[in-house]
Amino acid sequence: MKGYDFAIIGGGIIGLSIAREIKKRRPDARCALIEKEADCGLHASGRNSGVLHAGFYYTADSLKAKFCKVGNQLLKEYCQEKKIPINPCGKLVVAKNESELSGLDELLKRAKLNNVELHLISRKEAEEIEPRVLTHERALFSPTTASTDPTKVCQALKSEVEQAGITLLTNTSYQKKTPDGILTSQGPLTADYIINAAGLYADRIALDFGHSKTYRILPFKGLYLYSKEAPGSVRTNIYPVPDLNYPFLGVHFTLTDTGRIKIGPTAIPALWREQYHGLSRFRPIEFFDIVQRQCKLLFTSNFGFKKLALEEMQKYMGRKMVSLASGLLRGISPAQFLQWGKPGIRAQLFDTAKNKLETDYVLQGDARSLHILNAVSPGFTSAFSFAQYVVDKVESLSQKAEDKTQK
């Protein structure tokens, strides 16, 4: 394949957004985006909840906090421009009991530090927003949280980058690094700069380039259950107070862009990277590597992996998920939730040196390549603002290398 200025690996929302950002800054740049599937956004980008997060969960010093609020606004503007429906339903965060009220206070504190609009409201006020909600004494309301269809967003981005002149190579998988680019399943591809946005396989690709030495992807499976209640039966997203020791938000109610109700996602430890259904995409080497790592974590983790795994495995049973969700909303029964949605796999980064899950975005790179190792939730919400940061970083690394060469 002909030479390019940039080659981007991975056609999810992050890869698409980076390609778009490069072209906005450098219209003459020769860009290729490679995607191993037949279409873009078929993994995490098209399988997430579609929630546009406000940005109050994250500590003020984190990259997630830096990009989420701005990303929320940019993505809303994009959806409006492309006529992609948005459900401006907001979000309630509720407390089950007295002990969780301090969690509400912590989230409110983070919202203020992040300059994100968030309101502390009484139980009565929460019931005015959603009459069926259950909360202890008070709750938080986020008016800027919304929902959209992530598949429609990815398809709009795909069309835009193709129209901008970016070469989109689907059914094309990364094979290995070469001296002047990469080898793909369709042959060699030469490029001055490689950007790795490969999600579940980002760590493996980064290793080829001398990065990700202490990092490995630990996959977690997210399941959703849809309600047969009519759209509009619930007015807003409803979330529990999260355990801030984990990078997960707990089982919650979210609304689709059309107002349908679903509960989820789970965070079930997956046994291989693309364990969506049965034995599909089963890879023995992945299986043994991941299971070995998980077995070790059962006894050595410093973040309660054993407790997390045992609790999450129970959620393969729909009744368990419904039981947990029923503490957030009145009138919930297993008979309402019979339809499973598309499962997703979270490409969660694990630091093998520190024996911990990474809670923030993680990037590593040099003069020839940049690797996005961790871009989990709110990666969908933050995609546009995060892409700006990535391209800034690429430009900085490239300039430093050029300055060094001139000296």
Main attributes?
alpha+beta; 407 residues; eight-stranded mixed sheet; 11 helices
Structure description:
It is a single chain. The chain has helices spanning 13-25, 44-47, 63-81, 101-113, 123-129, 150-163, 202-208, 284-300, 305-313, 318-325, 383-406, and strands at residues 4-9, 31-34, 51-52, 86-87, 91-94, 119-122, 138-142, 146-148, 167-169, 174-178, 181-184, 187-196, 215-222, 225-227, 237-240, 252-255, 261-264, 268-269, 337-340, 344-351, 356-357, 362-365, 369-374. 33% of the residues lie in helices and 25% in strands. Helix 1 (13-25) crosses helix 11 and helix 8 crosses helix 9 (305-313). The protein has a single domain, classed as FAD/NAD(P)-binding domain (3-Layer(bba) Sandwich). The model has no long low-confidence stretch (mean pLDDT 95). The protein starts with a strand and ends with a helix. It is of the alpha+beta class and 407 residues long. The relative contact order is 0.18. The strands form five sheets. Strands 1, 2, 9, 10, 11, 12, 22 and 23 form an eight-stranded mixed β-sheet that branches. It is globular and about 65 Å long. Helix 1 (13-25) links the parallel strand 1 and strand 2 (31-34). The protein contains eleven helices and 23 strands.
Concise structural overview:
This protein has 407 residues and is an alpha+beta fold. It has eleven helices and 23 strands.
Q: Looking at CATH, which topology would you report? A: FAD/NAD(P)-binding domain
What value does the average pLDDT take? 95
Radius of gyration: 21 Å
CATH structural architecture: 3-Layer(bba) Sandwich
